[in-house]
Amino acid sequence: MRVIRTVATVRRACARFRDAGESIALVPTMGALHAGHLALVRLAKRRCDRVVVSIFVNPAQFAPNEDFGSYPRAWDADLAALSALAVDLIWAPGVRDMYPEGFATRIEPAGPAKVGLEDAFRPHFFGGVTTVVAKLLLQVAPDIALFGEKDYQQLKVVTAMAKDLDIPVKIVGLPTVREKDGLAMSSRNAYLSASERAAAPTLHRVLKDCASHIKTGRPLPDALAVSRAQIERAGFVLDYLEARHADTLAPVMSRKDGPVRLLVAARLGRTRLIDNIGV
C-alpha cells in the first residue's frame, strides 16, 4: 500500500494501472474512518481491480463557525484499517497541494444542491464538496467513485455534478451503515457524550416510525408534524425533517408524487446528526 502526497505522483500511479488494463475505484474520505467507510472500500474491491482511498479534510466545505480545526483525525488508525483491506493507494494531499497559491476556481452547483435541505443551513457546503470531488475525480480518473447514502443529498449533488461536467465516472451509492441500535455511522459521532450517544438512535427510530405511518396511509404532512415533535421532545434541536422525491429531492405532498425519501438533520448538544430512509 502506497501513501501518495502529490498530484503528479497520484496521476502517474493511476496511469500505470490504466495502462495495464486495470479498472480503478476511488473512495473519497476525510479520514477518521469507521465501518461505513470500510464497507465502501470492500465494495470497491469487489467492483474494480485497484482501489484508491483519498484522505483529505477539505477546508472549502467548512464555514468559519464549523469544526474544521477539531474535525476528528486518526491517521495511524486509518492506515492500519486500509492496510488490512489491502488498499492499493492512499491519496493524502495537503491543503497546499489541493489548493495551491493562486487557486481561484470554485464550482457552484444548483439542482439537488439548491432544494432547501443541507443547503439552507450550510450554504457554502456543496460548493466546497463539488469542487474538491471534481478535483479528486480528475486527479485519479477512476472508473467508479463510491459514496455512502447517509449523506443522501451529497450523493445526488455529486452524481449530478459528474454528469453535468461530462466526467467519465460512475458514481455508486452504498446504503447507510448503522450501529446495532440504528445510529448512522459518522466520524462526528465521536463528539457525542455518553448521554447524547444513548439518545442519538431516537433519530432513526422516529424516521422508521414516520415511514411506517406514511406507508399505512397517514397523510404525509400529519406524519411529519408528529415526527418533528417527537424529535424535539427527545432533546434534539431540529434543523429539518422533510419528505422529498428520492431522485430529484423536490418536495412531495403524498406517496403518489413519486418515490419518497425522508431526510432529517438535528443537533444533539454540539453534534449535528443527519439521516435518511426511503419510504
Strand content: 15-25%
Structural class: alpha/beta
Q: Which CATH first-tier class of the largest domain would you pick?
A: Alpha Beta
The CATH topology of the largest domain is Rossmann fold
Rg from C-alpha positions?
19 Å
Order of helices and strands: EHEHEHEHHHEHEHHHEEE
Largest sheet: 6 strands, parallel
Q: Write the CATH architecture name of the largest domain.
A: 3-Layer(aba) Sandwich
Features:
279 residues; alpha/beta; Rossmann fold; Pantoate--beta-alanine Ligase, Chain: A,domain 2; 2 domains; six-stranded parallel sheet
Give a topology summary.
Elements: E1 2-4, H1 7-19, E2 24-29, H2 35-47, E3 50-55, H3 75-84, E4 89-91, H4 95-98, H5 118-121, H6 125-140, E5 144-148, H7 152-164, E6 170-174, H8 194-199, H9 202-215, H10 220-233, E7 237-245, E8 260-268, E9 271-278
Parallel strand pairs: 1-4, 2-3, 2-5, 3-4, 5-6
Antiparallel strand pairs: 7-8, 8-9
How is this structure best described in words?
The chain is an alpha/beta fold and 279 residues long. It has 2 domains: 2-174, 3-Layer(aba) Sandwich (Rossmann fold); 187-278, 2-Layer Sandwich (Pantoate--beta-alanine Ligase, Chain: A,domain 2), CATH 3.30.1300.10. It is built from 10 helices and 9 strands. The chain has a 6-stranded parallel β-sheet, sandwiched between helices. A 3-stranded antiparallel β-sheet has the order 7-8-9, with helices on one face. The chain is globular, with a radius of gyration of 19 Å.
